[in-house]
Each structure stands twice: as structure tokens, then as C-alpha cells.
Description:
The chain is of the alpha/beta class. It is 33% helix and 25% strand. It folds into two domains: 142 residues, NAD(P)-binding Rossmann-like Domain (Rossmann fold), CATH 3.40.50; 105 residues, Dihydrodipicolinate Reductase, domain 2 (2-Layer Sandwich). It has a seven-stranded parallel β-sheet with strand order 3-2-1-4-5-6-12, sandwiched between helices. Strands 8-9-7-10-11 form a five-stranded mixed β-sheet, covered by helices on one side. The longest helix has 17 residues. It is elongated, with a radius of gyration of 19 Å.
Amino acid sequence: MVKIILGGCSGKMGRAVTASAEENPKTEIVCGVDIFNNGSLKYPVHENFSQVTEEADVIVDFSNPSLLTDLLTYAKEKSLPCVLCATGYSEEQKAEILEASKVIPIFSSGNMSLGINLLIELAQKAAKVFGSSFDVEIIEKHHNQKIDAPSGTALMIADGVSKVMEQEPQYVYDRHSYRRKRSKNEIGIHAVRGGTIVGEHEIIFAGHDEVLTIKHEAHSKEVFAVGAVNAAAFICGKEPGMYDMGDMLAEE
Ligand SMILES: NC(=O)c1ccc[n+]([C@@H]2O[C@H](COP(=O)([O-])OP(=O)(O)OC[C@H]3O[C@@H](n4cnc5c(N)ncnc54)[C@H](O)[C@@H]3O)[C@@H](O)[C@H]2O)c1
């Protein structure tokens, strides 16, 4: 049985992970960490990691970057692997995660669904074939409660495509402040917010008289929750280092 401490357990994703872990006979949530607790969860909920007394094998986090330092301090002290699923980490926090991965295994992905990871592979193939003759633009859509923009997933897609581009591209988020033509060496990234959209990501390769679009739609939060629970089982027993969906898929 994989025993999980769940960061952000009271949130939308925390509740979806709770349901997925309950359905999975190999996983159990031993406690949660969340500043909000309405008393409806079956396991103990603590306000921070210093209050945790339960024995666990792994931490899964869907809270907020503000919990990161507390989480990593506890994980390093207890030598616990972590699955970090929150988005919106600053550059300093990304460095903090990398530093911690020297002593504990850390699985980090801005998107835990299989489909998005496949989209990135397909987009990399397209970018290699088209080279610099096609313009790359990414459009993401999410519900009106999402705080960060662009989404961590949009950045993941952009980073994945950048890796195979001939020249390192510049990310352009906001064209209204410039009056100039689009340069070849850029990736435009656009965020749409509205209603209850769970998550849509589209990458377009626009060339002369033809456009290729690759699109992924998440219809429920369950896809991310199942991916996170699987990642929790995957990361247990691994050597310190950084891991992502690619590593998990390669092992399957
Ligand atoms: N990696 C993925 O596949 C994926 C998928 C969906 C959402 N996300 C990310 O997961 C995060 C949570 O998403 P959500 O929709 O569940 O949000 P949410 O606002 O519904 O839930 C966040 C929870 O974290 C708690 N929280 C926030 N700051 C905290 C802190 N400092 N200490 C303790 N608890 C704290 C809040 O009380 C809340 O219950 C976001 O960053 C979101 O972008 C990632």
C-alpha cells in the first residue's frame, strides 16, 4: 500500500485525488495539508507540514507555490519522494525544487494527463519537420477561477517545442503593447479564461497557405488525479533526481 500525504487536499484537485486514491486498491491517503478544512474529508487535515505525525511513503501536492518551502523541508527531513503538481512556481522556486532533487526523488509535471504528454511529442515532431518556416502559437483555455496565466501546461508545451527548434525562441505573451510584425523566432502564448472549462490546449503551426493544429481537451479533473496517483506509486523507491511523465511512460 502506498501511503500518501496530500497537499491542497480541500481544493478541487485535492478532492479528485482523494476519490482516485480511494478507488485504487494500492493507495491510501493518510492525511492532508491544507489551510482550509470544512471537516468533510475522512482523513486528518493539518494546516502545515510541521503538524503532520502520520507515517507516509510519498507527498502529492495540488496546493499552491506558497506551500513549497514547508513541503520540501518536511520531505527532505523524512526522505520522502514528492509529486509536485501545482503550477505557477517562480524561477527561484524551480531552483529550490532542483536543489531538493539532489537528495529526494521529485516528480514534477504541470500536466498529469497522458494526452498532453503525447501532444508534446507530436508537436516536437511537427516542429522538427517544419523547421523555421512555420509560426508556432499556443492557445490555452481554463475556467474563470484559475489564478495563474498562462497555464503551466502551455509553458510545458512551449518548452518541449523550444528544445527541438533550430534557434531558442522568445515567448511572447502580450502583443497589444507592441506595434511590430511577428518575428520568426517567437512562440506566441495566449490565455483564455471563462466559465467551467477544465483545460484546453492547442498548438498551431501556421505556414504559407496551410495550418496544422494539435489540440487536447480535458473533460474532467479525474484525468489529472489518476495521473498523480499513478505517479505517486511510480516515484516510491526511486533514486534522488527529477522525474516526469516521460519517465513514467517509458517504464510502463
Ligand atoms: N499538474 C496538473 O496536472 C494540474 C491539473 C490541475 C490543476 N493543477 C494545479 O494544481 C493547483 C491546485 O488546483 P485546484 O484547481 O485544486 O485549486 P484550488 O484552489 O481548488 O485548491 C488549492 C487548495 O490548496 C490550498 N492551499 C493554497 N495555499 C496553501 C498553503 N500555503 N498551505 C496549505 N494549503 C494551501 C487551498 O486552501 C485549496 O484548498 C493549481 O496550481 C493548479 O494550476 C495542476
